[in-house]
Design a protein that fits this description.
By secondary structure, this protein is mostly helical. The chain has 4 helices and no strands. Helix content is 84%, strand content 0%. The chain starts with a helix and ends with a helix.
């Protein structure tokens, strides 16, 4: 009976982690799609960095917790798929998907850190195009994240 309880508990934990992961993905990807397709064009047309900064300030309240939730739940879900030592072995379809998601995460982190440390503190009308060259790739990366994540259920890898 204890084994059945443990299995049910793991199933419930898996479902909760997956739902949190998907909710985080919806917030992160949806927010970046709004940023790239609505907010950024408006800021570029007006040559007004405040448009971007106002959106970012509001989005960070939910976007950063969503990203942290995705990272933590994603690592736990990956651990359920394969032991961490096999994530980069590329011996199974799951390892290909896990390695791809970790690569996307690293690339996103590089763009985010550069924007946060170099561009945002000194954002001006003149530097808005440089910020756009960070927003578009991060938005594309977030879409690819969703596609790769779907690969776990669709049998890609």
């Amino acid at each position: 009976m204890a084994a059945a309880g443990t299995a049910a508990s793991m199933t419930g934990m898996y479902a909760t982690a997956l739902l949190l992961h998907l909710l985080g993905a919806a917030i992160w990807t949806g927010g970046h799609l709004v940023l790239a397709t609505a907010v950024l064009p408006r800021a570029l047309r007006a040559r007004d960095p405040a448009v971007l900064l106002n959106f970012e300030q509001g989005f960070e309240r939910i976007g950063i917790p969503a990203l942290i939730t995705q990272v933590l739940s994603g690592l736990w879900l990956a651990h359920l798929q394969l032991p961490p030592g096999e994530w980069f072995a590329l011996a199974t379809p799951q390892s290909h998907l896990i390695a791809a998601k970790l690569g996307l995460l690293a690339t996103t982190a590089v763009f985010a850190l550069d924007a946060r440390l170099r561009l945002i503190p000194h954002l001006t009308a003149a530097s808005l195009p440089a910020m756009a060259w960070h927003i578009w790739p991060v938005t594309l990366l977030s879409i690819v994240f969703v596609m790769v994540g779907a690969g776990f259920r669709l049998g890609w890898g």
